[in-house]
Design goal:
This protein is of the alpha/beta class. It contains seven helices and eleven strands. The chain has a single domain, classed as 3-Layer(aba) Sandwich (Rossmann fold), CATH 3.40.50. The strands form two sheets. An eight-stranded mixed sheet has the order 6-7-5-4-8-9-11-10, with helices on both faces. A three-stranded antiparallel sheet has the order 1-2-3, with no helix packed on it.
Amino acid sequence: MHDLADQMPNGDPQLDWREGGVPVSTRFDDPYFSLGGGLAETRHVFLDGNDLPARLVSGFHVAELGFGTGLNLLALAQIATQPVRMTSFEAFPMNAAKLAQAHAAFPELADLAAQLRDGWGQPLIQVGQALLEVILGDVADTLPAWNGRADAWFLDGFSPAKNPQMWNDNIMAQVGAHTAADGSFATYTAAGHVRRALGQAGFAVERRSGFGSKRHMSVGRLQMPPTG
């Protein structure tokens, strides 16, 4: 089986590791998940922020900017009781060994994490009730070319201050254009330019209390009909 990381010529995620097994991107100088509790943050920001699991029905489609360690996928799979889909856009995939090192921080997800790693490198990966597709490459190229629409978005790229190209107006417009009617987004960031761009993309944007030391986060529902 080929590793997804092997499919990217410049895909080395360039990792360092902090105490507690937290991977940190040295490329973007940002941790992959919260130092104060990655799974709790995922549940607060991405699940609660998109009103999940209440909205989950068979065929519900989640899309994500930034797959990282796969923690968001694992948290989704943990709550899904019917078949759901997840499409994640990632430019710098980890290899299976690095995933395993990161997953060790979340023993309650061990069985689902093993399913993810067992399928790593395949076009579609079944993890619990979630069917995952990881789309590799620069999101500026891959998202416009995607023909899907998401019912919910997990916007989880590295910090807008450190990875601005992931959060620019064009990418946020593409998020709106690839969202189903009444679809939603959630993100840990409350950066003003991100909120404005998502508003221009058709979302009614709301600021909420963030996780841990982060005062605010952002959520929204699509108000304008999708274009394209």
